[in-house]
């Protein structure tokens, strides 16, 4: 493979620390590289160095003659007085760019809902970001550097960007280097991973999953080496201490060897651990939505009302873990508002259990606004003076400072004012404050903002052992599939169950986008429900191609459907009880935990089979 650009012995210092020291890297034709690491370790800085936007203090970056480089920077700004058209295609004649399939693909994938002649200054922040990405992708580049390109993209937009980058160049040509916290995107696009940490860049083969496997193996080998080193160090220090205190004439080489062992100890990364927090007792009833509709009146006088949700029935079970998908404006926030009580239903019934205590991790960090000038430790101490982590014989009483340290805050950060924390630190503190109020229903609204991949893994580990009901709205499909057991979509004002998860949602959206004329007319302000892929089209008389059941067959199907409903309700109770047993079980008993986990998987498998049969019967009875 031909070499495109390289970095040799890069050194960069900020006033308070060394960012990179003696870093040597190369990018070749065909490389698809993802960059991961903790927030603040230098991922974006590395992109700027390689792209030539930042000069190193030492070393150099060399580029092959004729290589063109394009970069999407988080701080890139577009002239607010430009139109979208001018910002994306410049002064190129329409017949020229409209005839380019690559340009048409970019415009359809990123700017389908953005007015072509609108001013940049009139767009939302997310739309401006997409315009900037589109303006970059319509150009011809040999190397693309992308810093968080998935920000402000929904699940469909992220899937489109992955397809575009994989098809942009012929095999073995071009190169892309991307910084993103979206782990599905890293796995889908990248064939190599660079981890930035402790002033170095460590390369790994493969995407995110392969990187994690290699990193676990690296850490295992390092642990074995550390155990041997510790044994040797103890022997060295014991030898030095042997004999009379006045004996100071030990051979110098032995003293030097012991000192070297001590100074080579690497700094411990911030431990992120929270085994279990108690939650308020949750009864059998959580929140039931029955035939609910939400209609918003027209904003202008005489404007038509807008139906956001209609005929929505959703019974949320104790311990349920559901991911909610949908395009921006589909009604996800309205649905969550019905659950929390922020939104009042126009029609239908909303019933909440008497013991329900709902908390929402929002995007706005509103919980921290009043604490901007206060120290982190003081904010947490206000809630409680002591916290019990774990249960039974494993229970440990922690002070607020100890708990914060276990959540990744260093000792120095405990006395830092909340307003001076980084975005990721604020998200961690926000989640901690919410969990310490002991809710039993937790709603996560785009929880991945400002978090690196290590922190996301830690949050997911925390949520695995959290025993309450969990509802997640996120464009991060890796997170949704990782922490939830069920996915639903808000489409055309209705809820659509997704037995096959995000892949099924993308298929439904593709059908909806390519065949709008085949859908029946919807009520005012709402579109009609999309048909599943492969569904039979109506005949010319309007009757379904598949005849409905009648007579004894129909009664038999209705009876079976009713039985499945009862079985699913019982299984939901059994699964909730199994989650409670898992949470209360001794976490050191791996055999027992494994048996409980197998039991839980078996119950969830039964649910999946019954839901599939339920869908089949429902289609026959329509």
TrEMBL record:
<dbReference type="Pfam" id="PF00005">
    <property type="entry name" value="ABC_tran"/>
</dbReference>
<dbReference type="InterPro" id="IPR032524">
    <property type="entry name" value="ABC_tran_C"/>
</dbReference>
<keyword id="KW-0067">ATP-binding</keyword>
<dbReference type="InterPro" id="IPR027417">
    <property type="entry name" value="P-loop_NTPase"/>
</dbReference>
<dbReference type="InterPro" id="IPR003593">
    <property type="entry name" value="AAA+_ATPase"/>
</dbReference>
<feature type="domain" description="ABC transporter">
    <location>
        <begin position="287"/>
        <end position="517"/>
    </location>
</feature>
<dbReference type="GO" id="GO:0005524">
    <property type="term" value="F:ATP binding"/>
</dbReference>
<dbReference type="InterPro" id="IPR017871">
    <property type="entry name" value="ABC_transporter-like_CS"/>
</dbReference>
<dbReference type="InterPro" id="IPR051309">
    <property type="entry name" value="ABCF_ATPase"/>
</dbReference>
<protein>
    <submittedName>
        <fullName>ATP-binding cassette domain-containing protein</fullName>
    </submittedName>
</protein>
<feature type="region of interest" description="Disordered">
    <location>
        <begin position="516"/>
        <end position="556"/>
    </location>
</feature>
<feature type="compositionally biased region" description="Low complexity">
    <location>
        <begin position="516"/>
        <end position="541"/>
    </location>
</feature>
<keyword id="KW-0547">Nucleotide-binding</keyword>
<dbReference type="GO" id="GO:0003677">
    <property type="term" value="F:DNA binding"/>
</dbReference>
<feature type="domain" description="ABC transporter">
    <location>
        <begin position="5"/>
        <end position="223"/>
    </location>
</feature>
<dbReference type="InterPro" id="IPR003439">
    <property type="entry name" value="ABC_transporter-like_ATP-bd"/>
</dbReference>
<dbReference type="GO" id="GO:0016887">
    <property type="term" value="F:ATP hydrolysis activity"/>
</dbReference>
<dbReference type="Pfam" id="PF16326">
    <property type="entry name" value="ABC_tran_CTD"/>
</dbReference>
